[in-house]
Amino acid sequence: MKITDTSDLWWKTAVVYCLDVETFLDSNGDGVGDLQGLGQRIDYLAQLGVTCLWLMPFYPTPDRDDGYDISDFYGIDPRLGTHGDLVEVIRTARDRGMRVIVDLVVNHTSDRHPWFLAAKRSVDSPYRDYYIWRSDAPPKGQKNAVFPGQADGIWEKDEKSGQWYQHSFYEHQPDLNIANPRVRDEIAKVIGFWLQLGISGFRVDAVPFLLEIPEGADIPEPHDLLKDIRRFLQRRSSEAILLGEVNLPYEQQIEYFGGESGDELTMQFDFVGMQALYLSLVRRDPAPLIEALRSRPELGTEVQWANFLRNHDELTLDKLSDAEREEVFEAFAPDERQRVFGRGITRRLPPMLEGDPRRIRMAYSLLFTLPGTPVLFYGEEIGMGENIEIPGRQAVRTPMQWSDDRNGGFSDAAPSRLVAAPPSDGYAPTHVNVATQLEDRGSLLHFVRDLVSRYRISPELGWGAFEVVEQPASSVLVHSLTADVGRFVAVHNFSEVPVETRFRLPDEPDGSALVDLLHAARLPLGPKGVVAFEVPAFGYRWLRVSRPGDGRVT
Ligand code: GLC
Q: Does residue 65 have its Cβ closer than 6 Å to ligand 1?
């Protein structure tokens, strides 16, 4: 299919930016970020060039899992603002060419949700069956909870009825029973509600857990439920997407796309590729990443991978072998406090790479040239670090650092009232902030802006057929993405040693050249399409094949 015929598939070439309203900008000085604050920074995001904002949960919540414990699916946390404020954000974003997607967290509710309160009050409550119960004691050696050390198993006893309820995550997050058609209707209604306010889809939380059906439940194949959700979504909004969190091996992820029919999730994060990428960074060798990319299943036209380096959770390494995980731990999280759940790292990328600007830029260059759609976590564009003083996953959820003013320009409140404290080390707002970097053309912020703008004029990256280009330097990855509009060749050196690369693009016509999209340069292809050049330590190049007379100007 021609790219030009399918430009309505906006997510194939989007640049997604994830943020938590609570930590972005505080407009009223109470120490908590809010929707009005976000509204004031829409132009900043538009200038960065991102095309889709993913808002983390902003719903009413007892806040025991950073808002992923929701007590009202239709509300707005009053600390963050009102529905009116949200609509203003969506409207302003849309005006600046950005779509908004929001978190859909329907695997569970908070235990303060009125449904669960009613369910607990009486076994005869119509809400009882909204949740998953068992009347006998859970067997020993039962399935472990997702947060080892913080939740003990997945069953919690409800003292009143003497029965146990299921919770895949924390014990204060009872799992909803998707086998119950009334629960499914509720989920559809929630989806319909937010779509009506103008959003363009959802980041769907914990999808494999959502589809886990209680033993003995008489319902169809769980994937049919996801197909139903997708059908409903698309009836209400043809442009809306489902970006799913599915941390499973590729073979299983394919099922969550709906296999060949592509009628379930529209996008999925590539957890496997992300973890391989970290192993490659540690080893200074692209081999693990190449292996992952080669084993990625082919996708249908309408679905897409979402690539990321960091998100709001721990940097999970659960798909690596024990020895590989240990390797990454030792290199990137030498201090026990930087690890969590025995599988993940609680740091942001720049401190892991010891602040080396060459490595940091190489990593982002890679992120934007991997086949798929890039997703940034707020603050990555300026190289924010984590606050090591904050334990666990919260360490990376500190306020956005706007300036070197008090509280990094995030809030006028007394520092003790802030929703989270910014780091006080070399990554403190005095050293890392938007205002300073805006004035410095050589800053990481400008670099990321450049990557975003070049990504946006290179639809091959989202659409193209992937191929590793053979060449002799083992520390270098050369890959190409080919689509009807043209061909993009990316070159990355994973090591600190400058190295010569030499490769052939034999199918390109005589007179073709490689145009460097990041630096003004043009490399003519020699006979049989051969080209050779030196790649600096941790170097990267974005090259577009320019064919004689192809007339492409961007
Ligand atoms: C997802 C979220 C995580 C949350 C969990 C439970 O994994 O990314 O932050 O704690 O779901 O909702």
A: yes
| Nearest CA owner, ligand 1 atom 7 | 206
Per residue in 405-419, pLDDT (tens digit) is: 999 999 999 999 999
Distance 305 CA to ligand 1 centre (A): 19
494-526: b or e for each residue (b if 16 or more CB lie within 10 Å)? bbeeebebebbbeebeeebbbebbeeeeebebe
CATH superfamily of 114-166: Oligo-1,6-glucosidase; Domain 2 (3.90.400.10)
Q: What is the pLDDT of residues 282-307, one digit of tens each?
A: 999 999 999 999 999 999 999 999 99
Dist. CA 280–CA 353, nearest whole Å: 13
Candidate list 26, 103, 205, 270, residue with the active-site label? 205
Q: How far is the CA of 152 from the centre of ligand 1 (A)?
A: 17
pLDDT of residue 149: 79
CATH class of 464-546: mainly beta
Beta bridge partners of 541: 491
Closest CA to 186 of 109, 240, 119, 77: 109
- Three-state DSSP state, 359: helix
pLDDT tens per residue across span 202-220: 999 999 999 998 877 878 7
**pLDDT score at 215:** 78
Examine the residue annotation and report whether 314 is marked as an active-site residue of this protein.
no
- Write down the domain spans for the chain: 114-166, 464-546
Task: Read off the pTM.
Answer: 0.97
